[in-house]
Write a structure and sequence with these properties.
This protein is mainly alpha-helical. 70% of the residues lie in helices and 2% in strands. It is built from 22 helices and four strands. The chain has a two-stranded parallel sheet. Helix 11 packs across helix 15 and helix 13 packs across helix 18.
Length: 409
């Protein structure tokens, strides 16, 4: 990236595209725009996210009456979540007021909250060490060198477009900030998108107030577990390590381009359009051996978060709502049948949120409760050494045996 930064600020730097495009002033200005914002073009990400989340229409602020209705429910939910989980500051429970936002505002805040992860990803994909591994091939093949240069040049813009679109699409379905079970900066409030919550209730024929309460319970439950430093640190560290372990494949797009059907210009343009709409190929993201090593541990901690939060949400929901199973099943079905934008972000962050992962987490929690009750499950609050390993998430008896030894020590 150092060489790219130097060229971005040097008007006399050689232009590898001059021969093909004639060195036109407009193209040169476009190239400068592509290369001036580091690994990600954040202006583009913000603009695409805003356009996607709002459809290009202005948004009204959340109705004050709706805020009051949610706040009345939030205080009740917070009290019960604290009583059942034993987590959180009891002096602050009754003053709980989430931040109610529109999809556009959610997109803006989410881009900012996830910025370190996206930046780590962009840096990994432009890793000098990985670029050097392919330098000899690129130097010996002018065609390959040309397209590698183009790929490197447009990568910040492509990254901005990709993550902006992805976050914008997520904002249309998310209820709050934990649809992806990732901790956010500690100084942020708890985000809720009331419009999405009510739209979901209407589409499933569910009572709005019951879905509002269920959503607040779930968000507060996950918020409370991420208030534990060892939980927060474990997830943050594993996800950032996973993201940073991506390695670029600068030859992938070149190979695909050279194999395009050039017999018919119209067919070739269609093939090129399909190629450039493949974000995984454009990002050059390929899984590395380091990611394969990290994945089991990441699956284990996320399985625990999902299993624990589902159990606590069901417990509190049953106490407050009577029988929230229809709501829970509808939400879980939406979660495991996610759209392409959710699947892509899960791949980027190493999150497996499919049915198998949900079942693993719930089976672990059930196994612990059967053997040692709530006291056994609360051991996960104590510290990082009490979190289950990749093997123990599928064998709760082994985990209980190990922590008993730890407690005796």
């Amino acid at each position: 990236m150092a060489a790219d930064d130097e060229n971005a600020n040097n008007d006399d730097a050689p232009n590898p595209f001059g021969g093909l495009f004639g060195g036109g002033a407009m193209f040169g200005d476009m190239m400068k725009m592509f290369s001036q914002q580091g690994p990600i073009h954040w202006d583009t990400a913000q603009q695409i996210a805003a356009m996607t989340s709002t459809g290009g229409q202005s948004e009204s602020n959340v109705d004050p009456a709706l805020r009051l209705a949610f706040n009345d429910l939030a205080r009740i939910a917070a009290q019960h979540v604290h009583d059942i989980t034993g987590l959180g500051d009891p002096t602050k429970v009754l003053s709980t007021e989430p931040i109610y936002v529109t999809p556009g505002e959610w997109s803006r805040r989410t881009l900012e909250d996830y910025r370190p992860l996206f930046t780590d990803l962009a840096r990994a994909l432009s890793s000098p060490a990985s670029e050097s591994n392919n330098s000899s091939d690129s130097d010996s093949d002018p065609f390959s060198a040309f397209f590698t240069s183009i790929t490197n040049l447009i990568a910040p813009m492509t990254m901005g477009m990709t993550i902006g679109s992805m976050v914008g699409l997520l904002s249309k379905k998310s209820f709050g900030q934990y649809d992806l079970p990732l901790p956010r900066p500690e100084d942020r409030g708890l985000l809720i998108i009331p419009g999405n919550v009510d739209a979901f209730a209407d589409s499933w024929g569910l009572d709005r107030n019951e879905v509002r309460m269920w959503t607040l319970i779930r968000e507060l439950v996950i918020h409370s577990v991420f208030s534990l430093p060892h939980f927060r640190d474990a997830v943050q560290t594993l996800v950032r390590d996973f993201v940073a372990a991506f390695r670029p494949d600068p030859q992938a797009i070149t190979e695909r381009l050279t194999n395009l059907d050039s017999g018919d210009p119209q067919d070739m343009m269609k093939s090129l359009q399909r190629l450039l709409s493949d974000p995984e190929l454009l990002l050059g993201a390929v899984r590395s051996p380091e990611q394969e090593r990290l994945q089991p541990r990441l699956d284990a901690i996320l399985g625990l978060v999902i299993g624990w939060s589902d159990h606590m949400t069901d417990t509190v929901g049953s106490l407050v709502l009577g029988n929230p199973s229809r709501i829970a099943e509808a939400v879980r079905r939406q979660r495991v049948e996610a759209g392409d934008e959710t699947v892509f972000v899960e791949k980027l962050f190493g999150l497996h949120l499919n049915r198998r992962q949900v079942d693993r987490g719930r089976a672990f929690v059930s196994g612990v409760l059967e053997r040692s009750g709530d006291d056994g499950l609360r051991q996960i609050y104590r510290g990082s050494q009490y979190l289950p390993t990749a093997a123990e998430i599928d064998a709760p008896g082994l985990w209980l045996a190990r922590i008993e030894i730890t407690k005796d020590d």
